[in-house]
Amino acid sequence: EKNSNISKEFLENLDTEADNLNNNRKFAEAHKLADVLIIVSKLKQYNSALAAAYWTKAGIASNEYKWEDVATYYEKASQTYLLDENPLMASLSLNNLGDAYNELGRYEQAEKILSRAYKIQQEYLPKIKEKASLVATLQPYVGLTLRNLGDSYFYMGKYKDALGAYQEAVNYFDKVSASDQKNLGRKANTLSRIAKTYNKLGETEKRKQTLQDAIKIGEQLENKTFLAEVYKTSASMYYDNKEYADAKIYYQKAYEAY
């Protein structure tokens, strides 16, 4: 009888609590609470709450680096969001699923999933063109989907396809306010990926220029993690090219930035 009074709002509050436990690295407690949410959401047939609980489970598993579990729960989240007629969240779940497949080395699966996510996003954007704030919210996530797709292509050795995906990702990041630090970090990170791709294609001058562009952005950011990642990418490329003196310089810069 008491269960009949459970509202979506109550479950959303519990989901927030599970998320907070995850952020505080109390993974066992977070899992238990998310499991309860999944059971209750299924009983109440609250698809939105169920999808959110799957998303939370995936987030916990991600912090535990359990990529198989991450993939499982993001797949369930994407399916449930589609049942709930929420294509935006379905596409974001698919993006994260594709990222998990990349982590697992399943690049062909990742390519298919990420291409599907991008297609949903492209179909969704025209439908919300009058809602400027929603469009602005979605733009960087489209960029992230393209960046992840670029990673899939890169690790499959499809360097020209990777370059195209990365460059299109930067175009989406450029649509966001220049004052958005997190987005600028994403752009710097993606530029460093473009540089890696130019390196594979043997385009040395473009590689150097793109790295400098990435470093310039990274130096503007308060969070120096992005800059450290750019330096680390630079160092690994110099090392792969047997330019060991330059590799040492950039590894040192990465260490200092971290």
Largest sheet: none
Q: SSE order in H/E notation? A: HHHHHHHHHHHH
What would you call the quaternary organization? single chain
Would you report the number of β strands? 0
Please give the share of residues in helix: over 70%
Mean model confidence by pLDDT: 93
Cα separation of the termini: 54 Å
Shape: globular
Low-confidence stretches: none
Features:
81% helix; 258 residues; globular; mainly alpha
What do these coordinates show?
- By secondary structure, the chain is an all-alpha fold.
- It is about 80% helix and about 0% strand.
- The chain is built from 12 helices and no strands.
- The protein has helices at about 10-25, 25-45, 45-65, 65-85, 85-105, 105-125, 130-155, 160-175, 180-200, 205-220, 225-240, 245-255.
- Helix 1 runs antiparallel to helix 2 (about 25-45), helix 6 packs antiparallel against helix 7 (about 130-155) and helix 9 (about 180-200) packs antiparallel against helix 10.
- The model has no long low-confidence stretch (mean pLDDT about 95).
Summed up, what is this model?
The protein is mainly alpha-helical and 258 residues long.
Question: What is the secondary structure topology, with strand pairs?
Answer:
Blueprint (H helix, E strand, L loop, with lengths): L7 H16 L3 H18 L2 H17 L3 H17 L3 H17 L3 H18 L7 H24 L3 H15 L7 H20 L3 H17 L4 H16 L3 H14 L1
